[in-house]
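Final report, results section. Input specification for complex C-07:
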Amino acid sequence: MTTDTMPFSFPGLIRKIFVRVGVLPFFLLGALVVFTLLSPKFLTGQNLVNVMRQSVYLVLVSLGQMLVLISGGFDLSVGTAIALTSVVSATVMVWLAGIFPDAIFLVILLGALAGFAAAACVGLLNGIGVAYFDVSPFIMTLGASSLAGGAALLLTGGVPVSGLPFAFADVFGFGRLWGVPVPVIVALLCIVAMWVFMSRTSLGTQVYAVGGNIKAAHLSAINTKRTLMMAYVGCALIASLTGLLLTARVESGEANLGGTITLESIAACVIAGVSLRGGIGRVENVVLGGFFIVLVQNGMNLAQISSYMQMVLLGALLILAVIFDQLRYRMIMGGS
Amino acid sequence: MSKLIETRGLTKQYPGVVALDHVDFDLEPGEVHVLFGENGAGKSTLISMLAGANTPTKGSIRLDGETVSFDSVAQAQAKGIYTVFQEFSLIPTLTVAQNIFLGWELRRGPFLDHRAMRARSREMLEELGFDIDPSAIVARLSRAQQQMVEITKAFHGDLKVLILDEPTASLTDREVDHLFDFVTKLKARGVGIVYISHRIQEFARIAERVTVLRDGAVIGTVAMADTNDDALVEMMTGRSFDQIYPSITNDPGEILLEVAGLHAPGISNARFQVRRGEVLGVAGLVGSGKSRLFRAVMGLTPVQSGTVTFKGRDITGATTRHIIKGGMYYLSPDRKAEGLDLATTARDNLAVNIVSGMRNEGGSPFVRWRAVNGSIDQISDHVELHAGYRNKPVSQLSGGNQQKALFGKCFGQEADLLIFDEPTVGVDMGTRAALYLLIKQLAEAGKAIVVISSDLPEAMNIAHRLLVLAHGRISAELSGQDMTEDTVLKYFFDETGATL
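Structure output:
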């Protein structure tokens, strides 16, 4: 409390950073120090480039998750939206490739569109439930998650869909453009688009307003229902895009893709200072948040921490981040 | 005579602010001592320390001559000091009896004795003259009834001091009468009562003494018998009563809003018009439907029958969003629940309306922040929200500044008819004067203004015409000479067609 009166004090500065951007800078610093000490390979250019490439998928999903979190909800169905996209797009591609073997890029395009459509249905379902029926986002998206996951398994009987066009994996899984991996380019485009959307368009402003106080937004002539719908559909579509990139990477349609990504994306957002109460969050921080989670996983791998232990640690990290989020919210509201 | 409570040099310092500055205050047994002052004058800080919710930086509190220091509200309660805060401490999902006995549960053996608690609650409520069913769920009670439950909770222990923080803000006159009868009974028992209220007209009815606070310091303590309303207001604000309400030129133009035969939840057969360049006041008791009437007009509750015509277009049943875009704006009475986003800055709050106003003009979907920020500064200057407050989270602003930010929101969208629902609730006198001036400017610029207010002097002084509501009906439409307090009050209790 007393630190406020000393504008240049060190604790005062830490406090200011914490209130403004959240816990991420401190976590990031901590992770860099710890893993650099644990493994000499960690802080190398090669490894960091590697982490950046691996983090593409989580960063993308986190951007969608952020959209929903800022609108005041959350989306537990991103993981199975990815699985559904993977299975549907792969199935459609394999089927169409048999009919039009010569128009392979048309096949890929149609397959991708089918995947997008499937995920959009999940998003629409979430949006309708949350916006029009006032169902709590928790149970709505949990239900949708089971629904989409079940559908993905039903479609394939649990067996991976193989035989995808080679060009799909070559371009979207392993391709490079000007030396940069295609998934990284896709992610960069998405990040820029999302940043422009959230901070430079009126629709983005409305997402913040709805999450901050939905009644006040309603009384400010904002179409709150449409805004919520858009957030859930947008989130599902970004998850779907991630699903396509992952499908290209594993070269088959799999119903178990995206298994842990839901929790990770929420963790990435919360660590990046997106408020679980809605209305607060920044694109650039979320990108760093996603990167941070993958960085930690990479560091733990290099330090030879078992995958079971990694789960434990990630869960602990998420809980810690949520506690810090609570403290930060109190500081914002209380001003003390 | 021995004092019940006596504070000496009570001081509370926050970083950068002295909230309370060497306050000497005392309370005698069997008296009602009013704390009077603008928002931020230090009343709440003072009672929070008496109540045990806050600890003083300096100074002492004595109870029955013995120096005390409380670490918690529970400790103060154990010593017989009970506070009814404005924000209730009721659990909405539990029953009245469960709430009354929360923390004081009666047991038979290891189990709760619900029957005994219900019976005892009924006795307590009856003794206080409150007509409430102990088995009712608190969420279903009116705000006034909830307040009664809150007060009833005070009667478990040996009550010495009762602190009431704006107890009448949400009560009807009849309920206020009940409360005052009950306060009189308490006085006879020797209980001392610290009473906070903005309603100066109440003081003469119950208070023995008034202490006026301004900027954290005591301006003076006077016996109610030796003072009058004007003198108290002058002590509080440093300016006289007349200067608060501006005189607004009455130049009624074309009819903007016409409501005919409107039936909506809690409203029957409402008929009225609002013209450009006039201020229409809407008065009535809590529950009379004055707010509900305009929430129905705004499309916030469904219209059952009748028509609402705005600028010659039938807008009955249109969505709130379309009505706002059509040029009608409604300022919520509850700035925290549905007015503002508390976690973001005043700037962000204003931006929401400016951005959605710009979209209205059919511009590009992209926001030009430079222009938006320019407008925000312009609006903030206009509503006198000072630069230092604009970038602070709204939750950290005083009630008055929050209300200024809320007023600012209505300038973000081009509106022709502005509906202010309780525009000055919980706002200090200085801010009130500023807000009234804004209303004056808007009306004189040819806007149509509706002011819904539970504060009768406000409604009468600011309005050119006054609608009075009772039991969901418009019981009178008064103007000019007819707008006297007596006439209005008569229509408040208009019994025609009512079941009371």
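Chain A has one domain: 38-334. Residues 104-133 of chain A form the longest helix (30 residues). This concludes the modelling results for the funded period.
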